């Protein structure tokens, strides 16, 4: 096949594109030296440039011979000249070129090294500044692939380097948070950077203003405001943990950093203003608060209680005041909506948690439920947490969450789960609940006012709500 035929015959180009869509077709084209012939062309005509890039992309999709030929024939330099030329390339050209690089990088360490050497850092940074989701997605594919498998560790360290690599990630998050993203490559990349490796806090801090202080433990970031980009990052990480927990290894640093951010957000959010929407609310501080709770809930849910590494992680959170903090959040809130409405019908009862002017309200719909869900998951088969909850007088507080709340969908279900986990296999807690029920006046009038009471099933040891007969 002559080179000039490939340049000028649109019909030939279309037939090659069609053939390149199947593994068998790619193998035959590799045997014919098609990729080498394309790369030997002095230039690609502008009106067929996109077709040539898509053909090269297809040829390098899982076909080792073509992937090798691409590197050996100087493919990275040729593509860089197109994507990073003096005149900005159209988004569809950038997308096809990055998809090609991603397919090549999947071939092995030598291929990833060649792509990385040509584009890091300036090339990747220039592409990251293109505010198009169609460009951001394949760029994340290239970066994630280059930072995976053998050799990926040192490239990941470079990508998270303060001067050269970190600006690339900051631009990617800015693009994704403003223009959007449609594929999962961003999530894979950020979960690798933030959850599995110790770069989350640096990246999060650089996405917004913060005061930096130095103490005996090192650098400490103090927040007075959060940004949309920070909230977006936490939202992406929360989605990763919810949808793909089995694919992610959670680092101890990440869990503790999220707890620090939760504490900071709780001091910034206005708990005197009742939220009218669920996450995302559009308020960065509120969204940071909510996504931090969601992440901690999933950390507690998907960790294996029988694993020593898991216990180290949970122990670290507990040592940092995790449980006390969550119970204090619940204690400071006004009662659930159903309880507030029922209190006026409860007479001659001593109410442990009266509504006062100082009671806080939920800053978004679902806040109370999220706090209860974190506690409930943390309680699961962890006697230490069960006992500490009792010692912190948290049993009556959790019993009060077993109700319907119009501002917190599924609060009753999460409340029942939390109480079940609180009592399961713990005789001391079961006795404490039984004693509460025998007290006069009723210790938890919120539940009694609904015509319900808590019973402990003698066979299963689990708590349940039943009608008062």
TrEMBL record:
Keywords: Cell cycle, Cell division. The keyword Flavoprotein does not apply. One of its GO terms (cellular component) is cytosol. InterPro entries: ARM-like (IPR011989), ARM-type_fold (IPR016024), Ataxin-10/CTR86_families (IPR051374), Ataxin-10_domain (IPR019156). One of its GO terms (biological process) is cell division. Residues 367-465 form the Ataxin-10 domain. Gene3D superfamilies: Leucine-rich Repeat Variant. Pfam families: Atx10homo_assoc. It comes from the Eukaryota. This is Ataxin-10. It comes from Phoenix dactylifera. The gene is LOC103696616.
């Amino acid at each position: 096949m002559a080179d000039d035929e490939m340049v000028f015959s649109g019909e030939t180009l279309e037939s090659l594109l069609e053939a390149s869509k199947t593994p068998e077709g790619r193998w035959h084209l590799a045997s014919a030296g098609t990729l080498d012939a394309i790369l030997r062309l002095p230039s690609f005509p502008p009106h067929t440039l996109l077709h040539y890039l898509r053909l090269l992309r297809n040829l390098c999709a899982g076909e080792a011979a073509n992937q090798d030929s691409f590197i050996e024939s100087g493919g990275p330099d040729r593509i860089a000249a197109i994507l990073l030329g003096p005149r900005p390339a159209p988004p569809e050209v950038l997308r096809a070129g990055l998809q090609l690089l991603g397919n090549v990088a999947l071939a092995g360490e030598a291929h990833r090294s060649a792509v990385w050497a040509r584009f890091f850092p300036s090339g990747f940074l220039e592409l990251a500044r293109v505010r198009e989701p169609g460009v951001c997605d394949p760029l994340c594919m290239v970066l994630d692939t280059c930072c995976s498998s053998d050799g990926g560790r040192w490239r990941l360290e470079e990508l998270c380097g303060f001067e050269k690599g970190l600006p690339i990630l900051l631009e990617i998050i800015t693009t994704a948070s403003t223009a959007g993203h449609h594929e999962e490559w961003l999530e894979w990349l950020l979960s690798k950077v933030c959850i599995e490796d110790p770069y989350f806090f640096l990246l999060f801090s650089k996405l917004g203003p913060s005061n930096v202080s130095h103490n005996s433990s090192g650098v400490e970031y103090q927040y007075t405001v959060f940004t949309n980009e920070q909230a977006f990052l936490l939202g992406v990480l929360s989605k990763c943990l919810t949808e793909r927990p089995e694919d992610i290894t959670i680092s101890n640093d990440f869990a503790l950093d999220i707890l620090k951010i939760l504490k900071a957000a709780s001091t910034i959010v206005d708990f005197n203003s009742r939220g009218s929407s669920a996450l995302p609310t559009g308020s960065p501080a509120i969204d940071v608060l909510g996504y931090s709770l969601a992440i901690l809930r999933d950390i507690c849910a998907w960790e294996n209680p029988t694993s020593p590494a898991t216990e180290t992680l949970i122990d670290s959170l507990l040592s940092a005041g995790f449980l006390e903090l969550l119970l204090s959040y619940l204690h400071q809130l006004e009662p659930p909506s159903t309880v507030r409405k029922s209190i006026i019908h409860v007479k001659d009862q001593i109410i442990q948690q009266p509504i006062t002017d100082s009671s806080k309200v939920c800053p978004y719909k679902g806040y109370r439920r999220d706090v209860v869900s974190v506690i409930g998951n943390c309680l699961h088969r962890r006697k230490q947490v069960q006992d500490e909850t009792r010692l912190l007088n948290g049993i009556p507080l959790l019993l009060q969450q077993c109700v319907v709340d119009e501002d917190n969908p599924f609060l009753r279900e999460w409340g029942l789960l939390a109480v079940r986990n609180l009592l399961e296999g713990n005789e001391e807690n079961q006795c404490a609940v039984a004693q509460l029920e025998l007290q006069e006046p009723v210790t938890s009038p919120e539940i009694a006012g609904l015509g319900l009471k808590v019973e402990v099933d003698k066979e299963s040891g689990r708590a349940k709500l039943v009608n008062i007969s």
